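Fold this: GntR family transcriptional regulator
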Amino acid sequence: MSARISDRTAPPEIVPAGHGGAAARIATGLRDAILGGEYAPGDRVRQEELADRHGASRLPVREALRMLAAEGLITVVANTGAWVTALEPAECDELYRIRERLEPLLLAMNVPLLSAADVEELETLAEAMEEAGDTEEFLALDRRFHFASYRAAPTITLGETVGQLWNRTQHYRRAFTRVFRSEGDRSAHYDHRLIVAAIRRGDAEEAERVLADHIRRTRLALAQHPEIFAR
């Protein structure tokens, strides 16, 4: 079965079918909290607190943690506990290298299918990002922008994989965004404009190239800021 990627915090396909509603609800809430910055990498996730917060027993909480562990957001240590997954610099570098290859491919698959209305939405989001008042607003708009450019083409696994890669690197993208905003770096905005222009022309090859460079620039910048990985 093919599926289209959405601009939600996680593509719906990431939550495996057959799990109870309580476990899926807890997983969604915890995923949103992690991606929203309520938890930092390395923070402990206590089952009893989650159970109390959601009015649930330990069983769906444990199942929710297993679901998020499968996505790479949680690290569960048997008989010890669960923590928000923290990436080492080499791990983050590898994930970004994967994104450099996969996301341009996904974008190229979408370019011929994006409508004029889709392009106008992307342009509006690109403009809004340039005026974003803070990091969290920028991150939300940035996610909407990229996922809107990926949602037209049905995929079997590529869209889901890209969604998981975004989620696993969310904390480090937030840290990078704070750096580039503080330094007045506007290269990300220029990239967004170039991507929109390429899509408008139907030039999938150019859109791929700009996006690959866009992701690569973040990877290289993160490598220059090892303090981002300190815990």
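The radius of gyration is 18 Å. The longest helix spans residues 89-110.
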